[in-house]
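Structural prep section.
Before we set up the soaks we want a predicted structure of the protein with coenzyme A in place, mainly to decide which crystallisation condition to try first. Input record follows.
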Amino acid sequence: MEYEITYDVLKDEHKEEVANVYSITFSRAPWYSNYTPKDTLGFLEDAMRRKGFICLVAKLADKVVGFSWGFLVPDEDVRNITFTKIRKMLSDKGIDADTCFYGAVTAVLPDFQRRGIGTELITRRTELAREHGVTGLLNRTKNDNMVKSYKKVFGEENVITLFNDPILSDRMWYYTKLNNTKS
Ligand SMILES: CC(C)(COP(=O)(O)OP(=O)(O)OC[C@H]1O[C@@H](n2cnc3c(N)ncnc32)[C@H](O)[C@@H]1OP(=O)(O)O)[C@@H](O)C(=O)NCCC(=O)NCCS
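Run finished without errors. Recording the tokens verbatim:
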């Protein structure tokens, strides 16, 4: 198939499509969630209020086929993440949460996966985060493909496995110190 993917920062006109991409991709393995687009639009709008929010979209012509968003590590708990606890656990590992970016969600429509879009979204999102003084990147997942994407961007040895999530124990936290990496 002939196609050219372009990347853009989130605009209002993308929000509903981003919510749809989220709902579709997370209805599959390994998540099997039943989030409606209304639910996921709510998650996006909540994230947009967070300090340091960044969201990039990947488009085929005008159609959104993927996105990646995150924000600075909050100092309060958010939906299903006890950041107050996580901050303490990070501090115990010598990680300063105040300058860390939490890579919350990256998703690419199933038909467009495995074409490098996920790694490109993470790379570009990280470049923007760096410009805002971020020194470390955190993410939490149970999807091995997500971890592989991070390792592809930052190098295998730079993606450090930290600990299981204290609430959702099937999810693992990962950390990348950005000044060690070129991406
Ligand atoms: C994780 C995700 C965003 C990756 O996006 P993507 O565009 O497919 O990623 P890339 O094409 O850049 O692939 C990067 C690497 O990840 C690994 N990978 C990605 N998809 C894979 C698959 N289906 N099977 C095996 N490895 C895979 C590969 O190592 C790949 O590198 P390679 O193609 O050079 O071997 C995508 O699979 C997705 O949307 N998954 C569902 C949503 C999700 O779980 N998001 C993470 C939430 S925390």
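Observations: DSSP finds five helices and seven strands in the chain.
Flagged for discussion at group meeting.
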